[in-house]
Amino acid sequence: MLDFLQAVSDGVLFGATYALIGIGFTLVFGVMHKINMAYAAASVGGAYAGLLVLQVMAGAPPWLVFLGAFLAGGVLGWMVYALCFHFIPLSNPLATLMSTVGMLLLIDEVIVHVTAGMPQNYPAMFDDVMLRAGEFSMRGDLLLVFAVSVLAMIGLLALLYRTSLGLATRAVSQQPVAAQLCGIRLVRVNALTFVVTGLLGGLAGAMIGASVGTLSPLLTTPLTVKGLIVTVIGGLGSIPGAILAGLLVGGFENVLQLYRGVTERDLYVMLLLFAFLTFRPGGLFAAKSGRD
Amino acid sequence: MSLLAVEDVVTAYGKIEALKGVSLEVAEGTITCLLGPNGAGKTTLMMTIAGILKPRRGRVLLGGTDIAGQAPHAIVARGIALVPENRLVFPAMTVLENLQAGAFQRRDKAAVAEDVERMFTRFPRLKERHAQQAGTLSGGEQQMLAVARALMSRPRLLLMDEPSLGLAPLVVEEIFRIIAELHRDGTTIFLVEQNAHMALKVAQHFFLIEQGKVTFSGDPGALAEDEVIRRAYLGSAQQ
């Protein structure tokens, strides 16, 4: 029982990073009704770029690396928008899917070439701290990962619900024609959405690196799949859904890892997805029919 | 001089021309009405003036400046606001947020807040429901919200695309009362309608559009009302 609780707790804490990745997929979908397949790869790319801080400044504190990853993620997000969406006809449902899959492979290749395919150590904070309650314990670095992720989510919600840019973003996602008639520039909101999700992604990538201890190019594909699973389970376009689903998937996979081992665990995540697609295809928070 | 002049505008969807050279004028301070059957090109013309659709040919002059083909945000900035067909409110945003979205380009926060109060005075129902999501409003309330949202940009010219569509007769009367009120306050209105009877009561001038072309232009008394209604619903091609 204690093992079970421990696995749930560790998994849910780590699941906050899945939630961030899920938010990135779901926000772009909400605004543009497109899937950005390059999102998880760009997030990992941003985390790698954060390591450049250590190249420039040896012995830099971990939080500077995280900040670097955050900012690099934003730049990468804008690049993904510029290269995969801006010049591509959005009316064709497959065009941007293909361009972003291409970008996913490109980012993957760049990472492999730059690092010669070797995993890179990633700094963590509070990894020497351990909170204990009897046999039950909580890792300090995971708590930080969780706290940073939650802060990022609060920041995003504040941006969406407290600023005029957020108002414009919600307007475009609910009714793009009317948003334009209000004088809102579609192209700007679209680009901004990619920058904001990119920032979140870079941070998520850094937090994953910090909790695992290393980054490897092998991360991009599973993270893409998991991000999409979280998005679907949460309900396409729903931010609360992505948050809840991220924590759910994180806890679920860690419990299955405990009982069935790391090689089998993703099988059960797929089964969870299958169950949702069968019994609740709209996800936890099925999107309201916003458009007529 | 007329506030809006549309000159020989052609707008096409692919190879199909929905507007085949439309010309008309809207004089400052008037209610001008465009009547015509379904599929005649009324909504296409509205979307073209507002910049959502790009005309293939022709000019759209606002106060003498050609705005044809400009982006919607630039056209809003020049002082045109469109109340779109089917209202298109932001369903998951509150009534207040819908109004704020209408004032998106304005930076004068205090004046925007005043205008919100003014809208609430003109549309008391919106005040009652200001914190409610727009998608939960009735059709008539949504129509009023769409009108108020458009007014929030302080337009020189208000375009309205079938504001009475799908509303109960009493609500239609209220909408037309509001249109007359806005006109009295000095707003220039270009109105697309199916409800020819109500439209001819408020308009000073009207145009008939049939199959992408303006086929008649005159004052409300210029053509017998039953003739107007017949052509507005059926088009003269059916004769």
- Kindly report the spatial arrangement of strands forming the biggest sheet of chain B: 6-7-8-3-9-10
What Rg of chain A do the Cα atoms give? 19 Å
Give the total of domains of chain A: 1
Biggest chain pair interface: A-B, 19 and 28 residues
Helix fraction of chain A, binned, reads over 70%
The radius of gyration computed from the alpha-carbon positions of chain B, rounded to a whole number of angstroms, is 17 Å
Highest-level CATH class of chain A: Mainly Alpha
**Biggest sheet record of chain A:** 2 strands, antiparallel
Beta percentage of chain A is under 5%
Overall structural class of chain B, as computed from helix and strand content, comes to alpha/beta
| Portion in beta strands of chain B | 25-35%
Describe the 3D structure.
The complex is a heterodimer of chains A (292) and B (239). By secondary structure, chain A is mostly helical. Helices cover 74% and strands 4% of the residues of chain A. Chain A contains eleven helices and four strands. In chain A, helix 2 crosses helix 3. Chain A starts with a helix and ends in a 13-residue tail after the last helix. The model of chain A has no long low-confidence stretch (mean pLDDT 94). Chain B contains nine helices and ten strands. Chain B has helices at residues 42-50, 72-78, 95-102, 109-122, 124-128, 139-151, 169-184, 196-202, 225-234, and strands spanning 2-13, 16-27, 31-35, 57-62, 65-66, 80-83, 157-161, 188-193, 205-210, 213-218. A six-stranded mixed β-sheet of chain B has the order 6-7-8-3-9-10, with helices on both faces. Chain B has a four-stranded antiparallel β-sheet with strand order 2-1-4-5, covered by helices on one side. The mean pLDDT of chain B is 93. At the A-B interface, helix 6 and helix 7 of A face helix 2 and helix 3 of B.
